[in-house]
Design brief:
328 residues, Beta-clip-like, 3 domains, 4-stranded mixed sheet, 9 helices, globular, binds zinc ion, Znf_MYND
Length: 328
């Protein structure tokens, strides 16, 4: 990202937005959610999609938070990055570019989270960590919006269910954060639901990048999170693993239907009814590195055709080596 000129990114952005506006009027429903054999839910193409064509646009994020190190220079509401913004006088953590952003954020979500963030920040005084962690803030907001009746219990469960790996690791730190959220919000959501949400924020999130190449936060999308992984995926983000935000248009308001920010495009021709797959990890990684990351972060052993093929090649090599070794 760092090598890309700002001007080039700005025009790429315009092209993206023009394209998305054009396509909004067309048949957008190129994918459908269905149950796949042995895989649970999966996304399938409803018609032939040519290489390079959009497969889907992003739905509004269900969870998002700004990275701790970017808080001081990113508007909490519209994600504009600049210096000299006004800080929330209560939590002393959220920064806003102007009054209207502050008012909008306050009305929609910040009034619920601000007192808890303030208390958390006070506890952190004197420690090396300055602000409540990103994933904690993302989950806290969702839980509070659920408590306020702005997110239904079924919608909350749908997000939590994205974490369905039975062999997911347990993490003491996350357990503690889940306990804090449960206690501070007095939510009726279970602690295991909160723990799942923390896991989802960790494993299903995409980085938010500005058009000048800075990474400023992360967010989770419900629909694309249902696409299964492949190490040789047939679809990809228009920017790999990155959601680009247009600084000019203020379209980030959680849970509001607004213009899509980025899209998934076909890496190759996709046949009608073919499953849509995305890579959860960098596909440039070697077999062992990919498998390790998928197991550690996502809790599953990849058995995609590429992994199977590469594993077979490895076994063949080993057998040949063993033959050589047995001759000596
Ligand atoms: Zn703003
Ligand atoms: Zn505040
Ligand atoms: Zn694989």
């Amino acid at each position: 990202m760092t090598n890309i000129q700002v001007g080039a990114m700005a025009s790429a952005n315009n092209a993206l937005i023009n394209l998305s506006m054009e396509l909004t009027n067309l048949d957008m429903d190129l994918t459908v959610l269905a149950n796949a054999k042995a895989k649970g839910q999966a996304l399938f193409a409803t018609k032939f999609i040519k290489k390079g064509e959009p497969v889907m646009f992003l739905d509004p994020p269900v969870m998002m938070a700004i990275d701790s190190e970017s808080l001081h220079r990113t508007c909490y509401s519209c994600l504009v990055t600049k210096s000299g913004m006004g800080r929330c006088g209560q939590c002393k953590m959220a920064y806003f570019c102007d009054k209207s952003c502050r008012n909008q954020a306050w009305k929609n979500y910040h009034k619920y989270e601000c007192p808890i963030l303030r208390d958390f920040k006070e506890v952190l005084t004197g420690s090396s960590i300055k602000d409540p962690p990103r994933n904690f803030r993302a989950v806290l907001r969702l839980i509070l919006l659920h408590k306020a009746g702005k997110v239904s219990t079924s919608a909350l469960q749908e997000v939590a269910d994205l974490w369905h790996r039975a062999n997911g690791r347990t993490d003491e730190h996350d357990n503690m954060l889940a306990q804090v959220i449960k206690g501070a919000t007095e939510t009726d959501a279970s602690q295991s639901c909160i723990l799942s949400l923390l896991r989802v924020m960790e494993s299903n999130c995409y980085n938010i990048g500005t058009f000048s190449g800075d990474l400023i936060g992360a967010e989770v999308y419900l629909k694309i999170s249902r696409a299964n992984h492949s190490c040789a995926p047939n679809a990809t983000f228009s920017h790999w693993g990155l959601v680009m935000w247009d600084r000019q248009s203020k379209y980030l308001t959680l849970f509001d239907k607004q213009m899509p920010a980025a899209m998934i495009v076909a890496r190759q021709d996709i046949a009608k009814e073919e499953e849509i797959t995305l890579a959860y990890v960098d596909i440039e990684l070697e077999l062992e590195a990919r498998k390790h990351r998928l197991r550690y972060v996502y809790g599953f052993d990849c058995a995609c055709p590429r992994c199977e093929k590469e594993e077979a090649l490895c076994r063949e090599k080993e057998q040949k080596l063993q033959k050589i070794a047995s001759r000596t």
